[in-house]
Amino acid sequence: MRFSIASLILLVAVPVAVSACEGDCIVEITNAFVTNYTNPVDLVMESVAKQISNMLPEHPGLATTMDLLRPVTDAYKSDAYNGMETAIFPSYFHGKCQRDGVDPPGCPNPDCPVVCGTPGSLVHFYGKLRYIAYNQTRQLLDTLTTPGSSIYGELERKVLDAANAHAKTRRMIRIYQRASPYGTVPLFLTKRNEDLKNQLRQIVDGIGPMLLEVCGGLDDGETNGLPDCSWEGAMKDYILSFP
């Protein structure tokens, strides 16, 4: 399966003048990356929804299975900004290039051991920045779909409810009821539900690789990979629009 992403035009507010990437600069650059990842994440979720459809009776349409995924998609939308900001600022890019609170000679300097959080430093280390944004997005999706988590539990319940409520399932139950009155139906439902749970786990295990495929894959893991989730030219221009 090969995904493609159309060129994305950043529609953001004109930044307020700042002396370094702080305040509005942090907020707007974080929002730009979250916005850029909207389409890749949507493509992954649509692929997951289609796979869920394939495992359900009668194979419901995309709108129905996307609704089943709402626990994940709603949680992603709620958590995406905070996770992205923390991953970029200050986990890697700090506001000032300081050691023990003191500016070293030549700071701000893109090659300072403590990476500056200035627009110039963000551009200088853009190869690293693109991976920070990608890894944060993938990690959040993986966390939300980890079996045992509350979000995954809600997703699993919705999928099982959809399967159990379907008319075809009811017909199958009636057939088994006529065949045997001695617990066949509970056994059938238990086995069928376990099979569905296993299939769902296999599907969500593929979310990380699906995002990687959407983003075009990794070349060297540091600078030249993720060609479809780079947005390098537009993002560099945007970052440098902040003083």
From TrEMBL:
Residues 1-19 form the signal peptide. The keyword Signal applies. Keywords: Signal. This is Uncharacterized protein. It comes from Phlebiopsis gigantea (strain 11061_1 CR5-6).
